[in-house]
């Protein structure tokens, strides 16, 4: 598991350098869930001394996208993936270390199986919730991913 997480973090450094420099890191990934983390620092803050909303969005999107990539890789098929829509809700100032968790692996697996079976593009909504060190939610992001077999 640790080597898979390292590979994803290396991928982020090469393909998503702005997220990497802002401190977004994958912590956990399995077929059911993914966790990312990001710590509030000078480089990722807004003028109000909290984490910039876009940095939270990068961490949340990576939590959902890592699950999508995990299931695509596991399927052995060539599948394109793209965010079609997203929404976000902010409930508390984000300071300190924020962990984003997505538990929508089974939904991705189902949508991917249907895309492979039907040959039609599929969409799946996934949620990543950001939690601070006190256990309080700071933000919730929803992403609608599209999956299409090439």
List keywords for this structure.
150 residues; alpha+beta; Thiol Ester Dehydrase, Chain A; 37% helix
Folded structure, characterized:
37% of the residues lie in helices and 35% in strands. It is an alpha+beta fold and 150 residues long. It has a single domain, classed as Roll (Thiol Ester Dehydrase, Chain A). A 6-stranded antiparallel β-sheet has the order 1-2-4-5-6-3. A hairpin with a 5-residue loop joins strand 5 and strand 6 (137-149). Helix 3 crosses helix 4 (105-118). The chain is globular and about 50 Å long. The two termini are 28 Å apart. The mean pLDDT is 95.
Question: Helices, strands, pairings?
Answer:
Layout: H1 2-15, H2 17-21, E1 25-29, E2 34-39, H3 53-75, E3 79-90, E4 97-102, H4 105-118, E5 122-131, E6 137-149
Antiparallel strand pairs: 1-2, 2-4, 3-6, 4-5, 5-6
Quick structural gist:
The protein is an alpha+beta fold and 150 residues long. It has helices at residues 2-15, 17-21, 53-75, 105-118; strands at 25-29, 34-39, 79-90, 97-102, 122-131, 137-149. Helix 3 (53-75) crosses helix 4.
Shape: globular
Beta-strand percentage range: 25-35%
Radius of gyration: 15 Å
CATH architecture tag:
Roll
**Number of E-state strands:** 6
**Major sheet characteristics:** 6 strands, antiparallel
CATH topology: Thiol Ester Dehydrase, Chain A
């Amino acid at each position: 598991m640790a080597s898979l997480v390292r590979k994803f973090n290396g991928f982020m450094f090469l393909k998503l350098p702005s997220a990497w420099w802002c401190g977004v890191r994958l912590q956990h990934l399995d077929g059911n869930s993914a966790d990312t983390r990001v710590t509030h620092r000078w480089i990722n803050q807004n003028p109000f001394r909290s984490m910039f909303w876009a940095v939270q969005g990068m961490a949340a999107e990576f939590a959902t996208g890592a699950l999508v990539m995990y299931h695509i890789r596991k399927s052995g098929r060539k599948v394109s993936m793209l965010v079609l829509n997203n929404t976000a809700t902010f409930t508390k100032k984000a300071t300190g270390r924020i962990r984003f968790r997505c538990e929508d692996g089974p939904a991705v697996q189902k949508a991917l199986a249907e895309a492979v079976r039907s040959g039609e593009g599929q969409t799946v909504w996934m949620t990543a919730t950001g939690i601070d060190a006190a256990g309080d939610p700071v933000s919730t992001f929803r992403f609608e991913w599209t999956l299409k077999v090439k």
